[in-house]
Amino acid sequence: MRKANWMTAACLLILWAGCAPKAVVRRYYLLEAPALPDSSAFCSEPLPVAAAFEDIRVAQAFDQERIALRSGSYELSYYYYHHWAVRPSDALSDAVFHIIRNANLFKRLDHSAAADCRFILTGELIRMERISEGKWDSAHLSGEFRLLDKEDRATLLVHPFDRQVVLEPRRDMNAFADAVNRIVGEETIAFIMKISEKLNQDKAAF
What we know:
The chain is α/β, with parallel strands linked by helices. It has helices spanning 2-19, 88-102, 173-201; strands spanning 27-29, 47-53, 57-58, 66-72, 75-84, 106-110, 117-133, 136-149, 155-166. The model has no long low-confidence stretch (mean pLDDT 86).
């Protein structure tokens, strides 16, 4: 009898272990500056002026740790178990700042406008979302970067972008984060090249 009771208890324990809910892990993804070529690929020497960088503004619907999923023209939902590791406005500002600073574009790039600062760099992100369309998923980012005159904040240059990158055949969330980082890096580099071309033409005015 004791043996039968022991066997019954063992079987119940095995069944309970198999039916017990598994722990669900919340996953976090990084927004960070991608590796760049040597700075000489962008600017052979820095422009003889200092610039200030103002944080990137992100639309409120996307400036949160939960990753946004667009499943309809006006319908957004948010992943419960997939989050950005850092709030997007903070993470993207850090990423773009480091890309521009490492490009050797200005003699100095600061987070605050010093007395000798000539320009301000800033921008905004209107959308940063994963789009699900049938069997296709994609990463979508749109926004713009701007170069401003420090004295009157007049806009000197605008770099708009609206990019959508298909994630097939990999649909995992890490592939989505990778696509977002690549878009941010590529559009920041395009912005740098536009600034370099414009300001090198006006170099005599510095």
